Amino acid sequence: MTEEFIRDRITQLRLKKGVSEYQMSYDLGHSRGYVYNISSGKALPPLKEFLAICDYFEISPQQFFDTSSDNPTLIQKALDGMKQLDESDMLILLGIINRFLSK
Alpha-carbon distance 36 to 55, whole Å? Predict the structure, then answer.
């Protein structure tokens, strides 16, 4: 992973969420140019801020670095919901997923 990957991934997730650099900076409690400075390569977020950015996008750090998914936020929400199911409901859901995948 490179610094460029981190900048590009933040931009990708921000655009998918539909927020401006200014709005994201404000939402994270920073000055107007905070996200711009990250996106333009002037700065990288320290670990504490990186974790806040992951929370902002409602994803785990692992999902941040996993580029195999176009919708990490939806996957995280699905996983959170699945964790609340009992075993029989999980088996039903798994059957539905397998049915979709076999089409």
Answer: 19
Residue 52 contacts by C-beta under 8 Å, 6 or more apart in sequence? 28, 45
What is the per-residue pLDDT across 2-22, written as a single tens digit (0 to 9) for each?
Answer: 899 999 999 999 999 999 999
pLDDT for res 101: 92
H helices then E strands: how many in the chain?
7, 0
Task: Residue 79: count other Cβ atoms within 10 Å of its Cβ.
Answer: 11
List all residues 6 or more positions away from 85 whose beta carbon is below 8 Å from its beta carbon. 93
List, in sequence order, every beta strand (DSSP E) within 4-73: none
pLDDT under 70 in the chain at which residues? none
Residue with tokens 């400075």: 37
Task: Give me the domains of the chain, ranges plus CATH numbers.
Answer: 3-101 (1.10.260.40)
Q: Is the pTM of this model over 0.85?
A: no
